[in-house]
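Fold this sequence, please.
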Amino acid sequence: MAETRAAAANPPALTSESGTLGNIESTINSAFEPIKDAFYNLVFGEVTVFGVTFPWIVAWLVIAAAVFTVTFGFIQIRAFKLAVDLVRGKYTSKDEPGEINHFQALSSALSGTVGLGNIAGVGVAVTIGGPGATFWMIMCGLLGMATKFVECTLGVKYREIDADGTVSGGPMHYLRKGLAERIPGPAGAAIGKVLAVLAALMILFFAIAGGNMFQANQTFAQLRDVTGGDTGPLGGDGAALVFGVVLAIVVGLVIIGGIKSIGAVTSKLVPAMAVIYIAACLIVIGVNITSVPSAVVEIIAGAFTPAAGFGGAIGVLIVGFQRAAFSNEAGLGSAPIAHSAVRTQHPVTEGLVALLEPFIDTVIICTMTALTIVIAKTQFWQDAQATVIAGGDTPDGVTVTSESFATVLPWFPYVLTVAVVLFAVSTIITWGYYGQRAWLFLFGKNKASEHIYNVVFCLFVVVGSVLTLTSVLDFADAVLFALALFNIIGLYIMIPVVKRELAEYRAKIRSGEVRKLEKTG
């Protein structure tokens, strides 16, 4: 995920407080402040376990992931090879219902989760939790694979396909239909409708504020920084506006084409940004290859016997779980929107494909970032850890990561800029689609409504490039994670539905019925 909550705490100064834009920003922040504080404190309210304080929403996500893992017999391990085969198109016929193939659905969903959290969030985790936090990030990522399996299976199971082939799916659909099926009588239908509307509103708000405005804001800030800051070519008053207009045009051209266009772009963009970033990690790791064994030992040992300053074993575990849960979005209900558009007649196949998402996002990308930081052992990181242990402020996670790469690649800020731009653009595109599905659910499916949304979304790309709306972004993050509360309740209730879908698909594999599709794919 883009880690809007953490990064918004220290937003870039893109406007002058004494200028017109600064006054607008101040007014908006003042209006949202009391609302944001109340809702934010509720969603991210903290509980204390064994002397360690952490947000309750993280425990809610992790417990659900553990329950689904056990319930489905460690599906993320047993079905891993089958999931990879499905992504490769091995069992998929071209004439199955849907708009995009399994690989495009996976890349579209990944483009909404792989973001600044994989760069900044990991830097924060290793700094405040020590190397051992990496181990628990991996564990949380592995558990989250089961949650993605459940919610994305339901996303396809209860999706709606219009006469023109356009697909609509996500929590607003499976909560409405699924709960009506599982809970007898009018109560089930009423509860499902209420939760569906709330889910759509939350997704729409975050799509505009967190998935759009924040991404545009941070992209311009990074570009301005590497080009000379206030004195560089992007330091002028009109630079942010021009950048916002150009970015809005690029985003508009993609989202107007719908999920087929988005899938085509993200299927190229996501692998590109992953290759660039992972290549940089491998270079740093390769140069320090002799330090890898000791770093691995440090990560494993630190997970169970951490230094006293990191809050004990429970403290390190919570830090790792928190950063992983915030990064891969397992259980939030966002990914099923993209996965629902897949071409398949077996809902469980996309659930199996979706379980690869946390593996790529957290187990691979986040782990490589953490390993790079631990191996580099920069003076900056050591000083930052000492500051945190002493009770000081947590440093900027991007800086921690960037300093680690700079030990081998002094020019890494430019590579990081490319990565941030790719991460941000892909996230805006994907959340543009998520928001569109929520908008059409709320206001009706027709071309006029769709065009209005596209224009509004692109306008907010421009607004996000110019303004720094801390309160709005904090509220947007709280809204998104509140969705997890309702979504996971629905997932628990609909476990029997997923079990039935899985059993039926396994029976078809055993009978050879599924293998016949390979010849027509």
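The beta strands are 46-49, 52-55, 160-161, 167-168. Residues 186-226 form the longest helix (41 residues).
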